[in-house]
Amino acid sequence: MKNLIYIFLILALAANYGCSDRQPAKKNIVILVGPKSHPAGMHEYIKSARLLKAMLDHSPNTTGINTQLVYNGWPENPAILDSADLILAIADGRYGEETVNPLMANDDRIKIIQKQMDRGCGVMTFHYTTFAPDIYEEEILEWTGGYFDWQPGEKKGEWYSDYTYITDEVTFPNPGHPVCNGIESFTYEEEFYFNLRFRENDKRLVPIMDVPGLETGQELGKVVAWAVERKDGGRGFGTTIGHYYDNFEIEDYRKFVLNSIVWTAGMKVPENGIESTFYSDKEVTNMLFNAEIKGLILTGHHHPGHPWEETTPVIKTALEKDKRIHIDVSTNIYDLAQYTLKDYDFLVLNYCNWEDPEGLPDDAKEAFTSYLKDGGGLMIIHFANGAWHYSLPGAEESDWPEFRNICLRMWDHNAESMHDAYGSFTVNPTETDHFITEGISSFETIDELYYKQVGEKPIEPLLTALSKDTGKDEPLAWVNMYGEGRIFQTLLGHDAASFEAKEFHEILRRAAIWVSRKE
Q1: pTM: predicted TM-score of the whole model, two decimal places
Q2: Contact 423, 446 (CB under 8 A)
Q3: Which end of the chain has fewer beta carbons closer than 10 Å to its terminal beta carbon, N or C?
Q4: Of 275, 65, 56, which Cα lies nearest the Cα of 181?
Q5: Are 102 and 74 contacting, i.e. CB atoms less than 8 angstroms apart?
């Protein structure tokens, strides 16, 4: 019995000794990533968050960080925040009714974030998320120490806070703060927000970055980054930098942002700061998703009979079965002008502006056509061939003639474009020799079989099916060129059931590879 007691004591001592040498538990960083809202290169929330994760994951002098990205600004299950050591918001701020700050969208969000603050979680606002409404002034001042103060109905010159675009040297009034480790003053171009709202005589507040060239009479008016340590043990940080994505190429800029993140998460910042490399978008895609081909599905609006909410995830899943492919999804067609399209090997159009007369703005048209002319790929799915057409009910004003040079067969309501009744039929590959259909067998599907689609340029069908209405083999898929861009168009894809055939999945994957020039 004594021997057993001795064994237990030895094991207990060994366990305690082992604990003393254990590495600290990983710090969990949750980044709330908002959707795009600005032109390409500006307010790049998604790209910035992914780059930050890649840089933290691969920094040579920091370890023990687990970074989670939450898209669309807020998690479906807020319980994910319960284990966060830092909540970083990279998204729109609150500006009238136009935009919503994910941290303080409503009273329920405030309660959820307050719960995390009470347990000592860190919180950081970045650029636009420093915009906050006065109704939550006390909360945001307690959490981070400051915010951009504007009020609805007031003009820019009447706001308490302000912003400007300048190139200037940034300085560090408290260089001994860990966020400043390894950083020298540097000069760069930025949209600086300034004249920020701080509590009077807040002894917690530490100004971190100043911009000497800002014109202001306020005592702390030139402060564009600041830090606080809260009574609950958590840390708060805010900075108004972050407008231009390309600034991440500046070493000291990267170091400043990464130091801020690490410090606010409750970690020790290395003496020389967080070391990092700026990675290209393709490198980031490979690091985060182990993928070399990236596609973007453009959706978010359609004919009511075409449930894009159901078909989009099916298309995404089908394409990503090829492990080389990663798919992003945008539900805002104006992202054609807001995304850096060259980051994507191909686009997928699962969209139609049914009863939406606004149409594409000129900058979106220019970005779209330039992308294709320069060699970008495009896949057009089903009734996306009805978009931006003068015959589209309720959307006649959206007519875009150039789209008919991209999409070679359009649904034309004035030319009796029709389809067989929704139901099952056999899809047959043609004898055309092409990478997309090579070796594909005929398959059954459930869909609308389109016919009398209108276009002047010739097509060479890759798929056909016998129409019950016309008694003819109707073309259902083909390819064409627009400039250097490769385009695949299919008339299949009415609803989720229309994507069930494994042969169709394979065709879509091959089409993505072909339009991306990766075959």
Answers
A1: 0.92
A2: yes
A3: N
A4: 275
A5: yes
